[in-house]
Amino acid sequence: MKKAILIIIGAVLFALVLTNLLQSEEYYNLKLEKLKQEHAIKPVSSVDHTKFEILQQEFATPQDVTEACISCHTERHREVMNSSHWNWERISYIEGRGIEASGKSNVINNFCIGAQSNEQACAKCHIGFGMSNNHFDFENARNVDCMVCHDNSEAYIKGASTAGYPDRSVNLSQVAQHVGQPTKHNCGSCHFNGGGGNNVKHGDLEQALLGCDRDVDVHMAANGMDMSCTACHTAENHQMLGKLYSVSSDNTHRATCEQCHTNTPHFDPIINRHNAKVSCQTCHIPEYAKVNATKMAWYWSESGKLKDGEPYTVDDEMGNHIYTSIKGTFKWATNAKPDYMWFNGTANLYLLGDTIDEKPLILNNLHGSHDDGESKIIPVKVHVGDQIYDKVHNILIQPKLHGTEKGDSAFWIDFDWPKAAEAGMRQVGLPYSGEYGFIETVMYWPVNHMVAPKDQAVGCAECHTRSNDGRLAQLSGFYLPGRDYNKPLDFAGIFLFFASLGGVLIHAAIRILVSIKKKRFEMKVIDYENEQQI
Amino acid sequence: MKKVYIYKGFERFWHWTQAALIIFLALTGFEVHGSFSILGFEQAARYHRAASWMLIVLIIFAIFWHFVTGEWKQYIPTSKKLKEQIMFYAFGMFKGQKHPTKKSGLTKLNPLQRLVYLGFKLFLVPVTVISGILYMVHKTVDKNDTVVISNIPLEGIAFWHTLGAFLLMVFLVVHVYMTTTGHTPTSNIQAMITGYEELEEDDEETTSEKEINKIDNNEKNT
């Protein structure tokens, strides 16, 4: 009886353990459902701007629209004029450098290099009107472009090389009456097209996000939550959360996954604990550039070739330029696997005039290491290339690329590097020796968008593997189970295991031999006895 | 020969469950270690954790049992006849000699077993289990629901855990083989299954009892 009870208890325990281990049914993630519910309710404007008399006029200039906006939203322009969208720089503390103003106004990248001396064209992505050179008046509120961010009619576009003014085709009155919270179209008009075309720079921000499915991006999917950029990049007084370390350098005002999903979003505590050293993006963005290609390399040194005196372009079978006379040679990638780095949220950017101290030159050095408590592993797109520099002064050159007519030193028209370098450097107030060369440069672009559905997240074994193809195979400074092991210990352990196995086998063999011998001997004796009996 | 009840119910349950868990933990553990791939890293790690908790619970029960029943005294090491025991395994048994020590319910273990099993209990299992627990908890979630990592380098923890695992595997090989050195090749294993073992009848049992008592007294005196 007692035994029967014990057996039953044992069997029940065993069954419980098994069902617990083998159960594969998904729990209902209430945390996630709650978030979905919150974001399913899209904000509806409490005012209808078509009804405002002041907006029912024919606006002569876009500045008049801004004045109309300010007449009601009386202090908003101050907030905007405090933002990096307006100033193109931010004051921040940079390790090893101190307090510096840095941003689009003084950084250099390895795409179109920099905005300085090219403002006429680059100002297409400045939230202002009339930035045609480096004498733009940052104090003039009339020049704030409210519409580029708040147009909800999708009709507002900035003109090509019009110093930030809207295209002449835009009906300002129509746009002014249809304003509201920024949509993906507003943010995307600049952030999808960085580097001179769709998805060129980021790799994870592109036009496909305007209408994609969940496989491309779970948050922005048209058949999913269809979230806008501002759902995560929330703003208070026009100060947006979120930054990218191509232009930013400090660990403040970042938009994070955790702000909605918390630090412990998984059911499995072991996966939650990865969050101490692994960012959410690392596992949840298995690849970027999922729809259209992104640029992976850009070699300026090969630019300037002409056919019959005319610039030309070469396209690959996908229609991406792989060579243009004005820019050089490109490499593209789709469905690219990110590289991985330690990152603590701070970066040291190459600023105009900095001395080149390494080759290849890293334009945005992301700080971080395993031993630094703030650091986590993040996915990045690595963009490499070469670009013009001053061989004597050992600094990068900001060339004048964009121009309006032949002979004004612009490389994209004249194809003359010395002139373009001289004109560009003169405008930024830096010396130019006359001797130029091309230096290899590297940029790191943290990948934060194109979050995949959870069943597509990076699996454990993609990092926890001894294979050299493992996602973290190149990342050092820490012990990763499944990837790392103590080689001498493994050697000794395996040797000892097989030595003991061999030892017992030999021992067994001797025993068997001895027993066979003994048996034969005994049999012989028996035979002998039998013989005797016979 | 007479049938003697040597291994009690719990003891047998403990032995076989521990054996199964250790073998299972070895398979999943060396998969996590990267030595081979059977279940896949994720499942291996998951099952390894589950089995490790079962083993910890089992060990707690076993420690309790050893102390309550006084069975721990079986493991008190002795150098008496230790050399003979080693010589027996190395040479004597090939010549058909008899075991130098007698087995009984009160002295289940020969001097060599006492030493090895004591090492198993006091060194091998603690090193592996403690390093395993540290392996599991070196990252934790704090009160603010934030994941923190403690400053124990995983490399060192993993070293001791792997070392323990390799030694356990060596133990497993030799231990399994040694079970065949009983009265008949399967008599030891049968005893661990049924609890009963056929032992040679003689009056040395009483002397063994005396030995135990003597050790008992020594313990008390010290």
Walkthrough of the structure:
By secondary structure, chain A is of the alpha+beta class. Chain A is 29% helix and 14% strand. Chain A has 16 helices and 15 strands. In chain A, the strands form four sheets. In chain A, strands 5, 6, 7, 8, 9, 11, 13, 14 and 15 form a nine-stranded mixed sheet that branches. In chain A, a hairpin with a 5-residue loop joins strand 6 and strand 7 (321-324). Chain A starts with a helix and ends with a helix. By secondary structure, chain B is mostly helical. Chain B has a single domain (2-79, 105-221), classed as Transmembrane di-heme cytochromes, Chain C (Fumarate Reductase Cytochrome B subunit, Up-down Bundle). Chain B has seven helices and four strands. Chain B has helices at 9-33, 41-69, 82-90, 111-137, 154-178, 187-194, 204-221; strands at residues 2-5, 139-141, 147-149, 196-199. In chain B, the strands form two sheets. Chain B has a two-stranded antiparallel sheet. In chain B, strands 2-3 form a two-stranded antiparallel ribbon. In chain B, helix 1 packs antiparallel against helix 2. The two termini of chain B are 38 Å apart. Chain A binds chain B through residues 17, 21, 262-264, 269-270, 272-277, 373, 459-461, 464-466, 478-479, 481-486, 489-490, 492-494, 496-497, 500-501, 503-504, 507-508, 510-511, 514, 518, and chain B through 32-35, 37, 40-42, 45-47, 49-50, 54, 89, 93-96, 139-141, 145-149, 153-155, 158-159, 162-163, 165-167, 169-170, 173-174, 177, 180.
Provide keyphrases for this structure:
heterodimer; A: 534 residues; alpha+beta; 9-stranded mixed beta sheet; two-stranded antiparallel ribbon; B: 222 residues; mainly alpha; Fumarate Reductase Cytochrome B subunit; 6% strand; elongated
